[in-house]
Recover the amino acids of this structure.
């Protein structure tokens, strides 16, 4: 997409979300432009959904999210931010009593929402710690897969050590990045969070005993780094409230690093290490003992997690498994949910031959669906229709059961990185049975998910009344995507 087209997309979105003065914050994840708003009532949902290039909209508790798709969102966001800055007045804006009343009401509603679902919002904040790390995890994972392929084939032996260093460097220091992001997310000084987390990966910890056993560098991993940085934020806040201003710059960082570092060395590293080992053992046991059933449950429930925006809360678990064994066994199973979604969308396409609007949405969203990006199909097709969302979950459950059964039979494999799924996961696969078997099993799972999602949706995804209402020519002016839903989908 050209720069002019990116700017045009951003310029089309901006007035529909209330203009520059209505924007409080701008950020993006892998697929969504996330906008903090002053006044939600200024947003035109229907017009946004009808914009070319917009795959859907989602209203979360703290941000308004415009689904643009992978790659596109990373190029549109800077243009959107630039337009917001250009559109704001140069001089200071006079704040009226009405402005204050509006902001107060908005803050009250936001606080009420947060208090109503504290656990949900906490999970989202934890996810926000890891989301910025996903591009590096993907890049290093692909390089690790390429390195493994070259090593197995005996090609370019002089390059293999260099690729190994590039692929492993980030993972060896991931605890530091987690600590930095955690402190930043929870209101502490980011570099202090990174400093206390760096203790975990320092080679010298091997000389320290905790609970009667010597520590090992990296023990506790990202879980230990997360806990250490959260503690650092608490210690820092305690110091800020009590240390005189003249001594704050010297005493606060010293006490934060010292107290948190000692607690990390003589407590958190050991406890987090035990927790990480338990997560790995449980995941392996779950798939070895009840692989088919576990896969059915995980694959069937993942789409609702994506719909609620809670799927990112699994990132710490995936990252822990990658640290331990080099890959996460859960991601290929969860990726089957996307296969069920694709199968369901294809069935909807076949069942509504006269509805050009819905079929157009499916055609535009399917490429992303095959690559594992499920939001366009969820919010544009299956969720607004209702029953096809349930039958898509059936397809995901069937594909997950297939992959889980293969794990139970001894074909254990996973993904070297998190983020991609669908066809995009093939370069990241690794396992104990060789690349050929691993790829074949994963491809078989996708095929099962496609077929089961298609069959369940084709035969059970529509009532006679739904077909009578939907299988009509909507005309070229009918908005594609989730504009057809009566109420906005809330994540």
């Amino acid at each position: 997409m050209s720069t002019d087209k990116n700017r045009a997309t951003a310029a089309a979105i901006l007035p529909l979300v209330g203009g520059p003065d209505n924007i409080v914050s701008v950020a993006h994840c892998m697929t969504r432009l996330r906008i903090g708003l002053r006044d939600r009532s200024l947003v035109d949902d229907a017009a946004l959904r009808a914009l070319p290039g917009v795959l859907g909209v989602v209203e979360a508790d703290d941000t308004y999210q415009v689904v643009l798709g992978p790659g596109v969102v990373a190029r549109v966001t800077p243009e959107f931010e630039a337009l917001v800055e250009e559109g704001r007045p140069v001089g200071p804006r006079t704040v009226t009593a009405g402005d204050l009343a509006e902001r107060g009401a908005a803050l009250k509603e936001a606080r009420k929402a947060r208090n109503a679902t504290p656990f949900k919002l906490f999970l989202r904040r934890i996810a926000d710690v890891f989301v910025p790390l996903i591009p590096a995890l993907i890049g290093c994972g692909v390089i690790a897969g390429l390195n493994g392929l070259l090593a197995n084939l005996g090609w370019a032996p002089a390059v293999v050590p260099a690729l190994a260093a590039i692929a492993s460097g980030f993972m060896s220091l991931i605890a530091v990045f987690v600590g930095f992001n955690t402190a930043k997310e929870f209101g502490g000084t980011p570099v202090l969070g990174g400093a206390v987390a760096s203790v975990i990966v320092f080679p010298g910890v091997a000389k320290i005993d905790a609970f009667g056993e010597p520590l090992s560098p990296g023990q506790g991993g990202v879980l230990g780094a997360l806990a250490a940085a959260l503690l650092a934020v608490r210690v820092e806040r305690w110091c800020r409230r009590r240390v005189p201003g003249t001594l704050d710059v010297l005493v606060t960082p010293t006490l934060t690093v010292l107290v948190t570092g000692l607690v990390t060395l003589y407590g958190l590293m050991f406890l987090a290490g035990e927790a990480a080992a338990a997560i790995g053992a449980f995941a392996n046991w779950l798939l070895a003992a009840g692989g088919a059933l576990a896969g059915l449950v995980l694959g069937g429930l993942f789409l609702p997690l994506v719909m609620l925006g809670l799927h990112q809360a699994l990132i710490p678990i995936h990252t822990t498994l990658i640290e331990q064994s080099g890959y996460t066994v859960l991601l290929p199973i969860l990726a089957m949910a996307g296969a069920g979604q694709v199968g369901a969308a294809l069935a909807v396409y076949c069942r509504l031959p006269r509805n050009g609007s819905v079929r157009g949405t499916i055609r535009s969203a399917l490429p992303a669906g095959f690559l594992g990006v499920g939001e366009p199909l969820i919010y544009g097709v299956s969720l607004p229709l209702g029953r096809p969302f349930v039958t898509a979950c059936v397809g995901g459950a069937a594909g997950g059961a297939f992959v889980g059964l293969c794990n139970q039979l001894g074909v254990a494999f996973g993904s070297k990185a998190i983020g991609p799924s669908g066809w995009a996961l093939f370069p990241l696969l690794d396992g104990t049975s060789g690349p050929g078997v691993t790829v074949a099993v994963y491809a078989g799972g996708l095929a099962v998910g496609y077929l089961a999602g298609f069959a369940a949706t084709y035969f059970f995804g529509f009532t006679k009344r739904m077909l009578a209402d939907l299988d009509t020519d909507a005309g070229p002016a009918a908005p594609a995507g989730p504009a057809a839903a009566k109420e906005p989908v809330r994540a």
Notes: The beta strands are 23-28, 32-37, 56-59, 64-67, 209-210, 213-214, 413-415, 429-431. The longest helix spans residues 245-308.
